[in-house]
Amino acid sequence: MSKRGFAKEAEEEVRAMNDTQTDLQGDLLVILRHGPHGSSLLREGLDMALVAAAFGRRVSLLFMGTGCTALVSGQGQGPLGQKGTQATLNMLEMYDIETLLVESEAMHALGLKACDLSLPVIEVSPAQIQAAMTTHRLVATF
Amino acid sequence: MASSEIARYLSVAGQRVALDPEGYLVDLDQWSPEVAQALADEENLRLEPAHWEVIEVLRDFYQRFEQAPAMRPLVKAVGMSLGKDKASSIYLMKLFPGSPAKIGARLAGLPKPANCL
């Protein structure tokens, strides 16, 4: 590869990195580490995100570990008739919460692909997760 | 959140409609346009077509997302179904003076919006 070609490629790489960096900025990062069943932590985390968004904060969500299963399509309500979280997840765009990050390693471990999920997501590497934690003023883990 | 505590009853066309302490329906299935008008009477509001189309948007929102919207998402939902010129908090404030998200939800037979200012 010519020197020039290499420089150009490096430049593009930096630009791509900057693009994801701006994507990952915001006021609040809510980390969701629990699936929809077994505890109310997912719901509580989503509630916090919605409250912050209702107050005009820029909110990003990061699904880690089993939290990624919250996004799997085709989930219904439980037999007790309690509300599911799928409707709340679909509502996020109405609150302008559009940055949905998922932990790439967890997706792999759970055998999930982006096309199994009900919403468009950005898969992030451990380094990008680290970056997201520094580019948000507040981080809350559920 | 929908409350199950009955504070008082509203009488609409011979039907007893239970209201919670904040004036929201206890049984959301009891909603009808007549109930909406009876609730509006308490706010001294006469429901015009401009009110009804927003009530429709609110009921659709609840159908889809199972929650009553706060102000910002309500403005967005109104913009998406009724057009950009109606997507402003000033327009909604004129229709439902005070707190459009709360009063709108009450008249539309939804629970009180949880994340409302």
What do you see in this structure?
The complex is a heterodimer of chains A (142) and B (117). With 142 residues, chain A is an alpha/beta fold. Chain A has a single domain, classed as DsrEFH-like (Hypothetical Protein Ychn, Chain: A). In chain A, 41% of the residues lie in helices and 18% in strands. Chain A has 5 helices and 5 strands; from the N terminus they run αβαβαβαβαβ. The longest helix of chain A is centred in the N-terminal third of the chain and has 21 residues. The model of chain A has no long low-confidence stretch (mean pLDDT 86). Chain B has 117 residues and is mainly alpha-helical. In chain B, 46% of the residues lie in helices and 9% in strands. Chain B is built from 5 helices and 2 strands; from the N terminus they run ββααααα. In chain B, a hairpin with a 2-residue loop joins strand 1 and strand 2. In chain B, helix 2 crosses helix 3. The two termini of chain B are 14 Å apart. The model of chain B has no long low-confidence stretch (mean pLDDT 92).
Q: DSSP helix count of chain B?
A: 5
What is the general shape of chain B? globular
Order of helices and strands of chain A: HEHEHEHEHE
Strand order of the largest sheet of chain A: 4-3-2-1-5
Shape category of chain A: globular
SS content category of chain B: mainly alpha
State the largest interface. Answer: A-B, 16 and 16 residues
Main β-sheet of chain A, in a few words?
Answer: 5 strands, parallel
Summarize the structure.
With 142 residues, chain A is an alpha/beta fold. Chain A is built from five helices and five strands. Chain A has a single domain, classed as 3-Layer(aba) Sandwich (Hypothetical Protein Ychn, Chain: A).
